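Pilot study result, target chain (117 residues):
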Amino acid sequence: LHHELNELSTKYAKANTELADNKEKAEVMERRLIASNKLIAGLGSERERWSAQLEDLRDTRERLVGDCLLTAAFLSYTGPFTYDFRREMLFDTWQGDIVQRQVPLTTPFRLEALLAD
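Predicted structure:
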C-alpha cells in the first residue's frame, strides 16, 4: 500500500507540473493571439489608406508626362528671359498647347510642386 501511494504521489506531482506548464503555454498563446488580432485590425485600416494612396499614384502617373514636359521645357528654354515672359511662355503658350493636344496634365499646374517634391 505504501509503495502504491508513493507511485500515485509521483504521478500526481508529475501531472501537476504538466498542468502548470500547459497553463503557462496557454497564457502565452492567448497573449500572442490578442497581439495578432490587434495587428490584423491595425493592418485593416492601413489597407484602406494604401488603396487610396495607390489610386492617387495611378492618377499622378497618368499626368506625369505632361507635368514633366512642361517642367523640362521651363528648365531648358526659359532661363535667359524675364519673369513675365517666362510665365506667359509656360502658362499661356506651352500649357495651352499641351491641353489642346490632350496630353494629361495636373490642373492647376504648379512648377514648384514638381521641382520641390
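One observation from the pilot: The two ends are 87 Å apart (CA to CA). A full batch analysis is planned for the follow-on phase.
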